[in-house]
């Protein structure tokens, strides 16, 4: 089953931090990708790059490790949605307002709603908003 993949899950793969249930969930999402396609909003690559460069600047990781991870991501079945920008000042803005989300989080919710796909997320605010919007959690 295809799904929308939030960066909160992807970063658990990289850092391996968080609670045991969160890590187990992230692992299940990763395992499912052998049979499913993950879809991400257009902002996803920028989010990944931002987290990695900030972690490098703080000395939490190295550029070499980040590049290895990015290479792995490039080989995964992850498709970037091309319509995110077109939705930014309409549906995404409205969802951000309605659910008090960042525009980045609202982009994941909008994509899941538009594509009628479950959302894989570990972000509590996004998870609650998705539930209120009737979006299934992966």
Care to describe what's here?
It is a single chain. The protein is an alpha/beta fold. The chain has a single domain (3-133), classed as Rossmann fold, CATH 3.40.50.1010. It is built from seven helices and four strands, in the order βααβααβααβα. The longest helix is centred in the middle third of the chain and has 16 residues, at 84-99. It starts with a strand and ends in a 5-residue tail after the last helix. The mean pLDDT is 97.
Descriptive tags:
Rossmann fold, 7 helices, 138 residues, globular, four-stranded parallel sheet
N→C terminal distance? 9 Å
Main β-sheet description: 4 strands, parallel
Q: What is the spatial order of strands in the main beta sheet?
A: 3-2-1-4
Number of strands: 4
Percent range for helical residues? Answer: 55-70%
* Rg: 15 Å
* Discrete helix count: 7
> Roughly what is the average pLDDT, rounded to an integer?
97
Element-by-element helix/strand order: EHHEHHEHHEH
From the spread of the alpha carbons, the general shape counts as globular
The tally of domains stands at 1
- Class computed from helices, strands and strand pairing: alpha/beta
* Binned strand content: 5-15%
Low-confidence stretches: none
CATH architectural category: 3-Layer(aba) Sandwich
Write the CATH fold name. Answer: Rossmann fold
- CATH class assignment: Alpha Beta
CATH homologous superfamily (4th level) name: 5'-nuclease
């Amino acid at each position: 089953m295809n799904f929308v993949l939030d960066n909160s899950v992807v970063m658990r793969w990289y850092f391996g931090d968080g609670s045991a249930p969160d890590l187990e969930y992230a692992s299940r999402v990763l395992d499912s990708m052998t049979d499913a396609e993950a879809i991400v909003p257009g902002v996803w690559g920028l989010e990944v790059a931002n987290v990695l460069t900030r972690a490098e600047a703080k000395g939490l990781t190295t550029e070499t490790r980040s590049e290895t991870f990015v290479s792995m991501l490039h080989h995964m079945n992850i498709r970037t949605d091309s319509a995110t920008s077109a939705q930014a000042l309409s549906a995404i803005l409205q969802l951000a307002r309605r659910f008090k989300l960042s525009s980045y989080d609202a982009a994941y919710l909008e994509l899941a709603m538009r594509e009628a796909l479950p959302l894989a997320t570990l972000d509590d605010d996004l998870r609650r908003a998705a539930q209120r919007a009737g979006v299934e959690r992966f």
